Amino acid sequence: MYRPRRRQGASGDRERWSPSIWDSSEAWAACAKALREYDEDMIQDWKEEIDTLLVFAGLFSAVLTAFNIESYKWLQQQPSDTHTAILSQISSQLNSFTVNANFVNTTAPATTALTAPFKPSRFAVRLNTLWFSSLVCSLLSASLGLLVKQWLREYLAGSSSISRESIRIRQYRYDGLRRWRVPEIILCLPILLQLALLLFFIGLLDLLWTLHPVVAAVVTTIVAVSMLFAFITSLLPPLYPDCPYKSPQSWLICAFTQSVKRTAAALASHYHARLYQPAPLTDRERAHGASTPDPFASKLELPALVHSRVWEAVRAWLHRVSLARTYASWKEREKLETETGKTAAALDDATLAGADAMFMDDAFLHTVVRPCMRDIAPRAALRCVDSILLRRAPRVLNDMPYWDLAHSLDGGHGDTGTLTLMNLLLDVLHRLNASRDSDVVIEWEEEESAETKDDARRQVLMTMHRLVRAIPAPAKGQAALNGGGADARTRPLFRRMFEVLAGVLDAEVKRTTPERFVRERSFNLMRKLFARFQAVGPDCIAAFCAYSKQTRLENAPYSFFQACNMVIRASAVLARAASRTGSAAVPEPSTCNTLLSPSSAYSLESGHKRSFDRSFVSSTTLYSEPLQISAPSDEDDEGAEADDTDSADDYTAVRPALLGVLHDLECFLSMPVSRAADCRPTMAMLSECAQAVLALAVRDRLAVSRDLVQALSDMVGYASAADASVHEDTDDGDVGGGWDDVDAGIGNGRWGGREDHDAQMARQAVRWLRRMYGLRVRSGLGSPPASYDTR
C-alpha cells in the first residue's frame, strides 16, 4: 500500500508516516471482519439444519428397521414352511390308505417332492423394495450430513485472522464451495429424508390394503391429506412471494420455473428485436425498383389493420416476457418485491405499528418509533399513527379514538405517551402540508389526488381536536417554576402546535382554492389552544392577519371578527412579553392611525400606567379566558420564563400587520351592515374583542385609535340594547335604547347568566378604553339609531 511521507523538517525530525485517504488497512480489516461474521452465520445455520436432520434420520431409521426385520423374511424360504409341507404330505398319505381283508393299500404316490421351488410373491418384493430404499435414503442423508459438517469445519479453519491474505484465502474457499455445489448438496439432505418418508408410506399402505380394507382406508386418508398438504406448501412459495412455506423442495420447483423463465425471456428478447428490424431487399426487388413499404398504408385496409393489431399485441407480449426478472435466491426475490414504493411504505408503517404494539412503552415510542416515522412516506406515517392511536386511546367509537379531559399537572406529573402522540400527529401534519403544493412528490404518491391529501389533513386535524383534550395546560407564574418536567414538556409542545397549525393556515390562505375545512379547523384549534398557551410567535400572528384579510374578502363577518380577536389577543400577549424585557420601544406617532397627545393623562410616558393596571384589576377580572390582565407584580416578573419574554423585535415586526387588522376592524364596526342581525357579532365575541383591545392599549396605546374605540363602544352599546330589547319583548316590556336601560336590565337579572357576564365585561372594558382615550362616557352612549329596528 502507498503511504505518502512527510518531508524532513528543518529541525532534523525523522520522516514519519502520515495518515491519508490511501491508508486502507482499517478498511480491509473491517471487510475481513464482516466477511468472517457472514461466514460464521451461514455455517452455523447449515450446521443447525444438519443436526436437526441427523436427529430425524436416526429416529426414522430406528422405526423403519423394525418394519424391515419382519418384511425381509418374506423374500426367502422359512424352515416352518418346510415342516408344514412335510406334515401336509404325511396327512395326504394317511388320508389315501385303504384297508382290506389281507391287504393295506394307498393311492398316494410313494415318492413325491416334499416342497415346490420357493418363489417370493410380488407383494413381498414390492414392499421390501420400498422399505429398504427408504432405509437407504435415510442412512444416506445422515452419512452425507456428517460429511458436510466435516467440510464446513475445514472451511472455517484458520479464519480468525483479519489480514488481506486471510481475505484471499476465504474468497478462494468460498469460490470452491460454490463451484463444487456444496450448497446444493446441503439442499438435497432434507429432500432425501422426505423421499424416504414417502417410500415408507407407500409400502405401509400397500401392506395394509392386503390385510384389512377398513384399516387401510383410514390410514390412506391420513397419509393422503398429509402428502397433499406437503405438496401444496411446496408449490405455493414459487407462486406467491410472501408465502412463508419455503423449503428445499419448493426451491427446486422455483429454480425450475426460473430456468424456464430465463429461456423464455431470452427467446422473447431475440424475436422482439427481430420484429423491429425490416427485412432487407433482395437484388431482384432492388432491380424492379422496390422500396420500403409505407407503414401507414396498411391502416387503410381492414384485413391489414386486424393483422397489424394482432402483431402489436404479440410484440407487446414479447416485450413483457423479455423484461421478466429472475432471481437466484429467496432473499433476492424478497428484496425485489419489497423495493416497490407502495409495498415498502406499507411494510414500514406495519413494522413501526407492530413494534409499538409489541412493547407498549412510552419511551420506546418517543425515542425509536417517532424518529423512524420521519423516514417513511407521509401517508404511511399517517396509517401508522392511526394504528397507534386506536391501540392507545382509552375509548374507541366507530373506529375513532377518544380521550378524557386532562387534569392539572399535579406537581409535574404528566402523560408522556399522550404528548408523544400529539408530536406524531404534528409531524404527519407538517409533512402533509409541506407536500401539498410541493413539486417534489414521492413516486408512489403521484397517483394520489389533491382531494386524497386534503382528506388526510382533515383526518389529522380532527384527531388533534380530540387528543388535545388529554393534554394539560402549562403552568403559569411561580407554578411554572415548580412544575418540573411536565411543564417543560408541555410548553414546547404547545409552541410547536401553534407553529405547525400556523403553517397550515398560512398555506391555505395563500392557495387559490383553499380547503375551507382544513383552514377553519386549524384556526378553531388554535383558538382552543390559546386559552391554555398564549406565548405565540410572530409567525402565528402573521397567519392570523392573513386569515382575517382572506375572510374579509370572502364576506364572512363572523370568521373575520374571530380572526381579528385572535390577532389582537396574541399581539397583546406579545406586547406584554416585550414590555417585560424593558426594551419595548415606543413607536413613532406617524405609525398610528389616530394618536393621542403626549400630554394625555394616560400616555405611555405617564407614571399612571401601573396604577391604571392595578385599578383595572381591582375592579374586575376581565379577559379571564384565555388571557388574564393582572397587575405586573414582581413575583410574576420573576416567574416568567425565557420563552414568554420575547424580544421587542418580534412585536415590532408584526405591528404593521396588526395596525392593518385594527383598521379593518374599525371599518367593519363602523359600517351599518355590521349591525344587521346576520352580521352583528355576538355579545361574547364583543366582550372578547373589547377586553383584547384594552389589553393591547395598556401595552401599546398608540396602536389603538380613537375611532376604533368609538366604533367598538357604539357596537357594544347597540348589541346590548338589541339584546335587551329582545328580552323586553319576551317579558312584554318596553324597548330600552340606552346604556342606563341596559344597566337596569343587568342589575335586575333579566338576562341569562352568561349573557350578563359577557355584557358586563364588554361594557366595563369599553368604559376603561374611553377613559384612556379621553372620550366622555355619557348616558345613552351607544344607543341604536332610530333607523334600525332593535327587534
TrEMBL record:
Keywords tagged on the record: Membrane, Transmembrane, Transmembrane helix
Ranges for region Disordered: 627-648
UniProt key word Coiled coil: no
Domain of life, source organism: Eukaryota
Biased composition (Acidic residues): 633-648
Keyword 4Fe-4S: no
Pfam family for this entry, one: DUF6535
Domain DUF6535 span(s) in chain numbering: 28-210
Membrane-crossing residue ranges in chain numbering: 130-148, 185-209, 215-236
Name this polypeptide is given: DUF6535 domain-containing protein
